[in-house]
Amino acid sequence: MPTLANDQESADRARATAASLLKAADAAIANGVRVADKVRVFGPVYSWWRLVCRTSEAVLLLTERGFTLEAAPMVRNILNHAYAINWLVDNGDAAVDALIARGDEEREALCRKLEATGWPNAAEFRAALDQAAAQQPAPPVRTPAEQALHDKLKHELKNFYDMLDRYDVAEIYPVYSHLSSLSHTTISTASAYVEQMSDGSLQIRQEAAGLGHADIIQLALALLQTATVMSPLIDGDPLRASIDEAATELGLEKTQLLPVRVR
Question: Which of 34, 45, 62, 141 has its Cα between 20 and 30 A from that of 97?
Answer without folding.
Answer: 34
